[in-house]
Amino acid sequence: MKHGRYPFIIGFLIVPVAIYATFVVAAYVQAFQLSFTNWRGFSPDVSYIGFDNFVKLFHDNTFWQAIRHNLFLLLFLPLLSIAIALFFSFLLNMGGGTKGGRTHGVRGSGFYKVVYFFPQLLALALVAVIFARVYSPDESGLINGLLHQIGAGPVLFLADERLAMWSILAVLVWQAVGFYVVLFSAGMGSIPAEIYEAAALDGATRGTLFFRVTLPLLWNTMQVAWVYLGIAAFDAFALVNIMSVDRGGPDGATTVIGLEIVRNAFDYAQFGYASAMGVVLFFLTITFAALTLRVTRRESIEL
């Protein structure tokens, strides 16, 4: 059995690995190759121009504007999503207090978990369409319709340069929180009840339980959540493309790297330049994930 294990494993892996290598790895490799060319996407003629595309990127104000917006999302999307998800998860699992030496969640916590998870069932493009209507500046918009009823507004959520990026961030957080509520709830459920019982018998408050017991034992789960949300912050193309005014507006106030890649490739037929942007985005994402895992690394806590 020992000698037949590896052929068995290889037999299962060879097809999916071959598919992944063909359609994912090969595409990445080709993007790296195209980033050193001036290929326009509609001709077999390709001229290698070295690092000219990357030099052009360095002086491209629109590209730097897009990077700033991605970094804005990178800072606030994980921070807000994790904080809100932790708050709801703690309420659903331990917010009901201690009874008989055991902690329990608020009444109806199982139902609330299902409700919080609903946004994950919707395609991101559909979420963008829904919230584009919610933010509509006329009375047909949910928020401005309510404001009109009390004689206020309208608020130009997506047309105001000061509000547009915050409005898109709010949608990203709304869409992400439900998944991490379920994820953190599963992590809290795996913590032995005896730990909470011992802390409760020692007189620990719910705040003490959260900061001294729950957070340290959920650290690895939070680390993974931070990486996933950071990757989502770099990949905000769909929401920005659908919700923003004039695709990245007003006046570039919401543009992101993914949108600039699509714009340069398919609107301006500069596939080589767009590939250079993709290469930069690739290294930004990999660097963020590696640094996050390195900086947040802690010794495992044995239960």
Describe the structure in your own words.
This protein has 303 residues and is mainly α. It has a single domain (55-295), classed as MetI-like fold, CATH 1.10.3720.10. It has helices at 5-34, 52-58, 61-94, 109-117, 124-134, 142-149, 164-189, 193-201, 206-217, 219-234, 237-243, 257-267, 271-295, and strands at residues 98-99, 102-103. The protein has a two-stranded antiparallel sheet with strand order 1-2. α4 (109-117) crosses α7. The radius of gyration is 24 Å and the shape is globular. The two termini are 34 Å apart. It is found in: Cell membrane. Its main location: membrane. The chain crosses the membrane at residues 7-29, 71-93, 114-135, 163-183, 225-245, 271-293. Residues 67-292 form the ABC transmembrane type-1 domain. It is a multi-pass membrane protein.
**Low-pLDDT runs:** none
The CATH superfamily title:
MetI-like
CATH architecture descriptor name: Orthogonal Bundle
User: What's the assembly state of these chains?
Assistant: single chain
Number of helices: 13
What would the average pLDDT be, to the nearest integer? Answer: 84
Question: Order of SSEs, N→C?
Answer: HHHEEHHHHHHHHHH
Q: At the first level of CATH, what is the class?
A: Mainly Alpha
Numbering strands along the chain, what is their spatial order in the largest sheet?
1-2
Strand content: under 5%
Bin the helical content.
55-70%
Main sheet: strands, sense, barrel: 2 strands, antiparallel
Number of strands: 2
- Work out the radius of gyration: 24 Å
Give the N-terminus to C-terminus distance in angstroms. 34 Å
Structural class: mainly alpha
GO biological process, one term: transmembrane transport
Domain ABC transmembrane type-1: 67-292
Keywords: Cell membrane, Membrane, Transmembrane, Transmembrane helix, Transport
Subcellular location: Cell membrane
